[in-house]
Amino acid sequence: MTDLPHSPEQPVVAAKVSRWKMFLASDIFWSYRRSPVTILASIIALILVLMAVFAPLLAPYDPFNPATLNLMDGMTAPNTESYTGKYFAFGSDNQGRDVLSSIMYGSRVSLFVGFAATMFAMVMGVGLGLVAGYFGGLWDAFIMRVADVQLSFPAILIALLIFGVARGVIPANQQEGAAIWVLIFAIGLANWAQFARTVRGATMVERQKDYVAAARILGVNPFLILLRHVLPNVLGPVLVIGTIGLALAIIEEATLSYLGVGVPPTQPSLGTLIRIGQQFLFSGEWWILLFPAITLILLALSVNLLGDWLRDALNPKLR
């Protein structure tokens, strides 16, 4: 009897199935299944992220298109129709903008700034932490002293200082277009020290191990040792700090926007919506403030809870 020919795709499919089975049997997935709070937090975070990413498709209205706005729709209470017959589930603001649509579009800005600022802080902090922990000496002393000075001040004050200096350097006609990138730079530069200190400590432990000594004996370039050997072994704590740092970056962006030094009014974030809603809180239009504030709380809390779970799941001593 002749054997049936095997498809070249069968080993690939088998490898994918085995990897999926390994993931389902892993400690991380077991820890995830055993934590109802983490499951709920991940569902909330996923819903909010998808709502922000697909805002142009899901939002009932375009809240920032002047051609679609009507002042007759202004100050409509939640779950009611306006004078023009439009339905607003979360109500409308004084300009007739749908609060629900504004939250969807505002979440896009908050998440983009938070992710970009966290990635910038992570890349900068991990790079400096690897250099300080591996080479030591003057590099370590200089980088860590700068980090100590920065950690002695609140991150929001450092971000305000950096944002103010950047606004003074950039020409006035270019400030609105560069505001988001300046905000990302300010928040990222204010939060790199946590990554650097953590990676430095882990690198000082890893550089004493045999595999690093073997790479040195073979004459491997020190920077290749850092990238290929040391970096993969210090990424666990970095992922935890990055997840928690994402929640902090979103809150910092909202704080700066609430103070009026964040994103421009043409691209409002959740912080800008909260600042606008605060002006109408005591006149009875509570929904303009309440729903953006709840969205911000749910977003930051769910990401923070995921970071706490990731910390416990990656640390065997906490299981």
Automatic annotation (TrEMBL):
**Topology of the protein relative to the lipid bilayer:** Multi-pass membrane protein
Q: Any coiled-coil ranges, and where? A: none
List membrane-spanning regions: 37-59, 111-139, 151-172, 178-199, 230-251, 286-310
The main location is membrane
- Give the record's keywords alphabetically: Cell membrane, Membrane, Transmembrane, Transmembrane helix, Transport
**InterPro entries annotated for this entry?**
BP-dependent_transpt_permease, MetI-like, MetI-like_sf, OppC_N
Q: Which residues form the ABC transmembrane type-1 domain?
A: 107-307
GO CC terms for this protein?
A: plasma membrane
- What biological processes does GO assign it? transmembrane transport
Q: Where in the cell is it found?
A: Cell membrane
Q: SUPFAM superfamilies given for it?
A: MetI-like
Q: Which PANTHER family match?
A: ABC TRANSPORTER PERMEASE PROTEIN (PTHR43386:SF26), OLIGOPEPTIDE TRANSPORT SYSTEM PERMEASE PROTEIN APPC (PTHR43386)
Give the family this protein belongs to, as stated in its UniProt record.
Answer: Belongs to the binding-protein-dependent transport system permease family.
According to UniProt, the name of this protein is: ABC transporter permease
Q: Which organism is it from?
A: Devosia epidermidihirudinis
* Taxonomic lineage: Bacteria, Pseudomonadati, Pseudomonadota, Alphaproteobacteria, Hyphomicrobiales
